[in-house]
Amino acid sequence: MTEPVTQSGFDYLIVGAGFAGSVLAERLASTLNARVLIVDKRPHIGGNAYDCYDDAGILIHPYGPHIFHTNSKDVFDYLSKFTRWRPYQHRVLASVDGQELPIPINLDTVNRLYGLNLTSFQVEEFFASVAEKVEQVRTSEDVVVSKVGRDLYNKFFRGYTRKQWGLDPSELDASVTARVPTRTNRDDRYFADTYQAMPLHGYTRMFENMLAHPNIKVMLGTDYREIMDFIPYRHMIYTGPVDAFFDYKYGKLPYRSLEFVHETHPVEQFQAVGTVNYPNDYAYTRISEFKHITGQTHQHTSVVYELPQAEGDPYYPVPRPENAELYKRYEAEAQALTGVTFVGRLATYRYYNMDQVVAQALTTFGKLRARHESAATEATPGD
Fold first, then answer.
1. What is the pTM of this model?
2. Closest CA to 148 of 103, 193, 191, 190
3. Cross-referenced NCBIfam families, in alphabetical order (predicted)?
4. How would residue 6 be classed by pLDDT, with cut points 50, 70 and 90?
5. Taking a C-beta distance cutoff of 8 angstroms, is the pair 211, 26 a contact?
């Protein structure tokens, strides 16, 4: 949608209507009374967190499941201004050796996989007995085998990682698997964060509420380059791919992409939990069923299969040292620009959870506000 522009233009042109851009638009408009134009190439707001109802009337996430979780009270309280919440704790099973077993690996995973009856104390000893000694943890393989040994690594991690990244875990930075915990109890929740909930009426409704301020104008289906020379603005906030901003002058930053295959089935429930991982079989990595996640009641159900691929929309920065070095060249260019602020996953070439993007945007707003207030103090009448 396009709205008329005032003669005096905008204080901020924000490129991208996902979490980073929308949070900054809302903060700038409501706190500083700034005039904001937010532009997105896609025909919708919300970025990858966008949700909508499919032809069957089921609320789905077109870009794969987005499960909100955070330990930050500030982030949760901020988003709570724009949505009510439905408590939800995500659970994931992995299809291994003909069984569907809890992931992250916990006491039940080990007992059921090996036909054992270990206690929490005994499973801790079990992990210690199978763990491989790694002098220096450098790769994703090192992380896992040093915790749970080679067999569990092969059954749960190696195949999944190879599909997801197109690389063996021995070729990937330790950060890829370092975030996955191993539990000695029966806790089968995928996340352990303090706040775990889904927006009651969906993410898109939350974004609509966030962008409802009269100072915010939204332009969808538009490349910012098409309008930036015609619409006056004082400062740009860019949330797109940083290499694209600089016309790939140092080469493309490597990403992994995903193909999403959506299906609707004439049954009330397709699988036992929100997500089932397939580390060793099939081309897809996982299947997610939306009704678990949204809490919707419906006689049919919709699922999504995720198939990792090398080409397509950028989703996951590939964590390898040479890619980090390439990003540093773009980062230096970005930091040299005074008229543009780079924020968000793609603009900073980092894999952030949703709450981390919100936190980064709120921190960025604090810096922009300080600069705004400093400029207002220095301004003289007639400026």
1. 0.93
2. 103
3. UDP-GALP_mutase
4. very low
5. yes
Average model confidence (pLDDT) across the chain = 94
- pLDDT category, 379, cuts 50, 70, 90? low
Structure tokens belonging to residue 156: 């749960």
Longest Cα separation, the chain: 80
Domain boundaries, given as residue ranges, for the chain:
10-45+211-251+318-378, 92-178
State the SS3 of the chain: CCCCCCCCCEEEEEECCCHHHHHHHHHHHHHHCCCEEEEECCCCCCHHHCCEECCCCCEECCCCCCCCEECCHHHHHHHCCCCCEEECCCEEEEEECCEEEEECCCHHHHHHHHCCCCCHHHHHHHHHHHCCCCCCCCEHHHHHHHHHHHHHHHHHHHHHHHHHHCCCHHHCECHHHHCCCCCCCCCCECCCCCEEEEECCCHHHHHHHHCCCCCEEEEECCCHHHHCCCCCEEEEEECCCHHHHCCCCCCCCCEEEEEEEEEEECCCCCCCCCEEECCCCCCCCEEEEHHHHHCCCCCCEEEEEEEEECCCCCCEECCCHHHHHHHHHHHHHHHHCCCEEECCHHHHCCCCCHHHHHHHHHHHHHHHHHHHHHHHHHCCCCC
Tens digit of pLDDT for each residue in 157-202?
A: 999 999 999 999 999 888 888 777 899 999 999 999 999 999 999 9
The pair of three-digit structure tokens given for residue 342, joined into one six-digit string: 């780079």
Q: Give the architecture-level CATH label for domain 10-45+211-251+318-378.
A: 3-Layer(aba) Sandwich (3.40)
The CA-based angle 49-292-187, given to 5 degrees, is 100
Radius of gyration of the chain (CA): 23
Residue pair 169/140 in contact (Cβ under 8 Å)? The answer is yes
pLDDT tens digits, 274-302: 999 999 999 999 999 999 999 999 999 99
